[in-house]
Specification:
five-stranded parallel β-sheet
Length: 227
């Protein structure tokens, strides 16, 4: 999931931003601060008022802060995609509610990409009904046995035996990047880093920069959220 999202953002012809999440990001004010700061990769002057309000001893309700922030985004003439990576690490209901508010009031020039190991506690059904959601699930990423063999031969220069391919299917769940990682075990032993799912974005772990000009998934419709 992370690899696919990072590869797409490297190649899309739009402004992009990235936020890697972990369990320490379950403080609502901290989450929104990182959310705004990540989007400043697209628009450096964005969110100054919102960040100032978040620092007040008694800040306004998050919905009030987010309303002004989203209105500010809508005033820009460029489209930005923000990826929230590993959203399954977020367990705070206040954050889920705040992100649901963002999705319900999402400007046309803001797209969200959310990577997660489980369905997020967000208004997924409502987004589907509005045709504002593109879902990419594990079965959409899986390789067939023949595709695994071809991937290993064409991308990694290795021809595997049927037993080795069967082992990759069991270990990597037929996911392309995992195939490459599992290949390290096949040829280099158990010390290879198979199964490490936390992959740093090329622009940095917490606040990566912008994308590069090759479109991979095509043009997104307005207010698209990719999960």
């Amino acid at each position: 999931k992370t690899t696919l999202a990072a590869e797409w953002l490297r190649n899309v012809r739009l402004e992009t931003a990235w936020l890697s999440l972990d369990e320490t990001d379950n403080d609502p004010a901290g989450f929104i601060t990182y959310f705004i700061t990540a989007l400043r990769q697209c628009h450096p002057s964005l969110g100054e008022d919102a960040l100032r309000l978040l620092l007040l001893p008694q800040p306004p309700r998050l919905e009030v802060i987010l309303t002004g922030f989203l209105n500010e985004i809508s005033g820009f003439d460029r489209v930005c995609i923000l990826c929230l990576d590993d959203y399954h690490e977020i367990h705070n209901q206040v954050i889920h509610k705040a992100l649901a508010f963002i999705l319900d009031h999402q400007p046309e020039n803001l797209h969200l990409t959310i990577t997660t190991r489980e369905d997020p506690l967000l208004p997924i059904g409502r987004l589907r009904a509005r045709d504002h959601l593109l879902e990419i699930r594990q079965q959409d990423l899986q390789f067939s046995t023949q595709e695994i063999a071809r991937f290993m031969e064409e991308r990694l220069g290795q021809s595997l035996s049927p037993d080795q391919i069967a082992g990759l299917e069991r270990r990597a769940e037929r996911i392309p990047f995992s195939e490459r990682s599992a290949h390290e075990r096949v040829y280099h032993g158990p010390r290879a880093a198979f199964g490490d799912r936390r992959i740093a974005h090329p622009c940095g772990d917490r606040k990566p920069g912008r994308g590069h000009p090759v479109d991979h998934f095509g043009t997104l419709p307005a207010r698209q959220t990719v999960v």
